[in-house]
């Protein structure tokens, strides 16, 4: 059992690739932080607090956040925080695909079988895991309407 080495807190930046046609809000790759935290009594409220406080710190206290249930195979339950679109204030625009909201991250409670396979006592410990898309956060903060601008090498003047 690896339970002697707990708690575990881990954050790693990286690049994620996906087979997707590029457009203004999605690219064939994006930058993200992957993270997990395992300890006694970890619950979804911890993840919700982490998302809320981080987004408000980065994007401002006026940032409106909503949480949706979402399926991710590694966690159960899973959720996704969305922010109200900073370009249209939730009215709907090309950036938010006329939804008024932009998906920023995803995560949830680490599945008990995953903990068990890692040699962690899943009756004593629980954990959370998430992936945080840095590109959309930067786009929202700095009002960059096209994700391809982040990789073009061109200097943008406001």
In short:
The chain is built from three helices and seven strands; from the N terminus they run E-E-H-E-E-E-E-H-E-H.
Considering the chains and any ligands shown, give keywords for the structure:
single chain, about 160 residues, alpha+beta, 7-stranded antiparallel sheet, 3 helices, about 20% helix
**Biggest beta-sheet profile:** 7 strands, antiparallel
Order of helices and strands: EEHEEEEHEH
Low-confidence stretches: none
- Principal-axis shape equals elongated
Q: Tally the helices: what do you get?
A: 3
Which structural class best describes the helix and strand composition? alpha+beta
The overall average pLDDT, rounded, is: 89
Number of strands: 7
Rg calculated over all Cα atoms: 17 Å
The termini sit apart by: 55 Å
| Percentage beta strand | 25-35%
Helical proportion, percent range: 10-25%
